[in-house]
Amino acid sequence: MEPGEALPWHADLCHRFTVVVRGEAIAIEYRDSKEIKTITVYPGLGDWDAPQRRVHRAINIGKVPYEEVIIFFIDKPDIEPQPEEG
Fold first, then answer.
1. How many CB atoms lie within 10 A of CB 29?
2. Is it the case that residue 50 has pLDDT exceeding 90?
3. Is the pTM of this model over 0.85?
4. Residues 55-82, buried b or exposed e (16+ Cβ, 10 A)?
């Protein structure tokens, strides 16, 4: 994501492991409450995440592009791990 860019609104339906490749900070915005969590990130930061059914999106609030690698642990056939929630 380029600085200022946001992902589409979505939910996370399975466990995942994320490793940051590039970036400084992201914000997680929740659609149901407009709650915003700010997270400082750096290359090599890894994180294990549980499913998150609250609809949310990530916004790159840093000054450099944000890049990550995600491994989804899909436990049911035909599951979409991050369905968009328009």
1. 17
2. yes
3. yes
4. bbbbbbbbeeebebeeebeeeeeeeebb
